[in-house]
């Protein structure tokens, strides 16, 4: 039953028709728990609240359904506006983005050009930009563009997914670039030809890449709500004498808030991924697919 629900929500997340319907009706049925709002100001207000109790953030203007050059340029402009709003408000937040929202599927050079404009603005503000990893079809091109950008920019990082077989090799290849990586388990539905089908194998690979990237000496963001992974990381950095300045824990807006606050009290840097925007549907569906408890939360809201 759980697998059936996960597959259903993952399929819905890729539906253009469902996305259009979601935009029409807005953040209803519980989506507002996971999405900070539809406007920049709402997202800034959410980050300010996080900052007040010691959490930092990374803002993401959601956008996965981009079908024209005009939409891609508009998405890039929103990223730049977000960086300006962060600087103007003084909140402590980076920027995260998906390169498909910048037109990666339309024109690679358009995407790279927009990335450079965004990174220039971030550099002007002394800020940092994280490239989100998407499905397997976009993995290689995303890493290729990241390597290209690292020739010119030191304020850009990328995400690596533990459920892919290729990930350990990617970690090794990125060592030469001094990569600042966010390490995640992975939230897309992938073929067993490219990804570990069993959760236990994903967990073991996740631990291995955390160890490898930390021991390579590079900044590591461990993005997980799994307390076993968090405890594993705490024990590993203690054993190896790794400074808290070399890593941070990352979690999603609206999930495990008490755990987030506890980690802050323990002296760890905790960064919250804060999504906003009208194109929230695909992101919301992946959150429902990840945890059945999220589905029951939504159902309760539907019947209120």
Description:
The chain has 304 residues and is an alpha/beta fold. The chain has a single domain, classed as Alpha-Beta Barrel (TIM Barrel), CATH 3.20.20. The chain has helices spanning 2-13, 16-25, 40-52, 69-89, 108-124, 139-150, 167-174, 199-215, 227-240, 257-265, 281-290, 292-302; strands at residues 56-61, 93-97, 129-131, 156-161, 181-184, 220-223, 247-252, 270-276. The protein has an eight-stranded parallel beta barrel, surrounded by seven helices. The protein is globular and about 50 Å long. The relative contact order is 0.16. Residues 297-304 have low confidence and may be disordered. InterPro entries: FAD-linked_oxidoreductase-like, PRODH_bac_arc, Proline_DH_dom, Proline_oxidase. Pathway: Amino-acid degradation; L-proline degradation into L-glutamate; L-glutamate from L-proline: step 1/2. Residues 46-298 form the Proline dehydrogenase domain. It holds the Pfam family Pro_dh. It catalyses: L-proline + a quinone = (S)-1-pyrroline-5-carboxylate + a quinol + H(+).
